[in-house]
Design goal:
Strand content: under 5%
Shape: globular
Strand order of the largest sheet: 1-4
CATH superfamily of the domain at 18-213: SecY subunit domain
Structural class: mainly alpha
Radius of gyration: 26 Å
């Protein structure tokens, strides 16, 4: 027999959605916040010649700038105030999570409950400011090194750029928190989602224009559509897949009553690491190309200058080999994705801590002793799932790259972008269903109270 929660979930439909007025307010607030974000991606920072910058951007878009431009909805290409997007905040969050997994003060905060979580959140915000200042200052220096891009280079331009870009990142961080608290949730993810989705029409139009000009064949367009459709289906299937580990709770006696043992499940996702491994791998691989695009030629004949020239040539060679579609890029990209999938999963899911919590709550796995044996079993299951999840990430991220490169398309919606869009869509739908389910529970509770008063 289905439980009350399952019965309520089965009754979710358009009628129940139309009655959830609180959910309507949350959706409208989220749409308004995302509209503000999109408007900010069209406001350029001061002191820039946009025509000269776009010419310089074409030579450097194969580096990190190209990936950031996709995630930011074209804000990097327009050098808008939101050019850094929420990437400093994401980097800071990942760094704090990694540090909190090692023994130390951050680990103590992590275990302190709500107060510790608030302290970690505050530290993450401070680290976001530091990372945003460093990145914006690097961008300012790089812009000054490009010819005719900055109208009045100097200290004033550097200060204004740092303030503008850092302020834009902090505003988006605050906006994401507001969407999470007052909207439908997943604020930061929705901001990245909106940036990627906003670039889809332009990339589709560019591909159709190339097909009209004869640069792309009809077979190439068909191959791209099939690959995208299969990637979406695969992502939905894997992201919804779980390995349910059975947990048994023994009989317990409270006073004179004896309660029967209960059975529940510990859901383990196939792709526990999410989109973090592709993002980390892409960032590392694109560093040589970005450095090569920002480097200038050295005309000095000193020994130090000669060493600088040798280093520049080595970086340019590495950048040429580490471009999309090259065999070395594919091999290293796949290896980094697998490495980060295993490493990040081991960080965010502690089998020893999970086993200890089960033991404290009286739960155990059937046929397995509590404690170390349970931790070993969970580690074995999680390792197998991580291998499958890493292989899934490699396929999703590399197959579109290979297909698009083979047909000669410059379609910018790569595997990482597809993964983010589909994953965020699934999470958002789940959030909406949760709000609708909560609304039905509230309605059921009100009816129960009214019936009790009548009696």
């Amino acid at each position: 027999m289905a439980s009350a929660a399952e019965q309520l979930a089965a009754n979710l439909n358009f009628s129940s959605f139309s009655k959830a007025k609180e959910l309507h307010k949350r959706i409208w607030f989220t749409l308004g916040a995302l509209l503000v974000y999109r408007l900010g991606t069209f406001l350029p920072i001061p002191g820039i010649d946009l025509v000269a910058f776009q010419e310089a951007f074409k030579t450097a878009q194969n580096g990190v700038l190209g990936m950031f431009n996709t995630f930011s909805g074209g804000a990097v290409e327009r050098l808008a105030i939101f050019a850094l997007n929420v990437m400093p905040y994401i980097s800071a969050s990942i760094i704090i999570q990694l540090l909190a997994s090692f023994p130390g003060r951050l680990e103590t905060m992590k275990k302190d409950g709500e107060s510790g979580r608030q302290q970690l959140t505050q530290i993450t915000r401070y680290l976001t400011v530091v990372l945003a200042i460093v990145q914006s200052f690097s961008i300012a220096k790089g812009l000054e090194g490009s010819p005719n891009v900055v109208t009045n280079p100097g200290l004033l331009f550097e200060i204004s750029t740092v303030i503008t870009l850092t302020g834009g990142t902090l505003f988006l961080m605050w906006l994401g928190e507001q969407i999470t608290a007052r909207g439908i949730g997943n604020g930061v993810s929705l901001i990245i989602f909106a940036g990627i989705v906003a670039e889809i029409p332009r990339t589709i139009w560019s591909s159709l224009k190339l097909a009209q000009e004869g640069s792309l064949s009809g077979f190439a367009i068909l191959a791209m559509v099939v690959v995208l459709a299969l990637a979406v289906i695969l992502i939905v299937f894997v992201e919804r897949s779980q390995r349910r580990v059975v947990i048994q709770y023994p009989k317990r006696q409270v006073g004179n009553k004896v309660y029967q043992g209960d059975t529940s499940f510990l859901p383990l996702k196939v792709n526990t690491a999410g989109v973090i491994p592709p993002i980390f791998a892409s960032s590392l691989l694109m560093i040589p190309a970005t450095i090569a695009g920002l480097m200038g030629a050295s005309d000095e004949s000193s020994t130090a200058a000669q060493w600088v020239q040798i280093a520049q040539e080595w970086i340019r060679t590495a950048a040429g080999a580490m471009t999309h579609g090259k065999p070395l890029f594919m091999v290293v990209y796949a290896a980094l994705i697998l490495f980060f999938a295993v490493f990040y999963t081991s960080i965010i899911f502690n089998v020893d801590e999970t086993s200890d919590n089960l033991r404290k709550n009286g739960g155990f796995l059937p046929g397995i002793r509590p404690g170390a044996k349970t931790a070993q079993y969970l580690d074995k299951v999680l390792t197998r799932l991580t291998v499958l999840g890493g292989a899934f990430l490699v396929v999703v991220c590399l197959v579109p790259e290979i297909v698009f490169a083979s047909v000669g398309s410059a379609f910018s919606l790569g595997g990482t972008s597809i993964l983010i869009v589909v994953s965020v869509t699934i999470d958002t739908v789940s959030q909406v269903q949760s709000h609708m389910l909560a609304h039905q529970y509230e309605g059921l509770a009100k009816k129960t109270k009214l019936r009790g008063r009548k009696r």
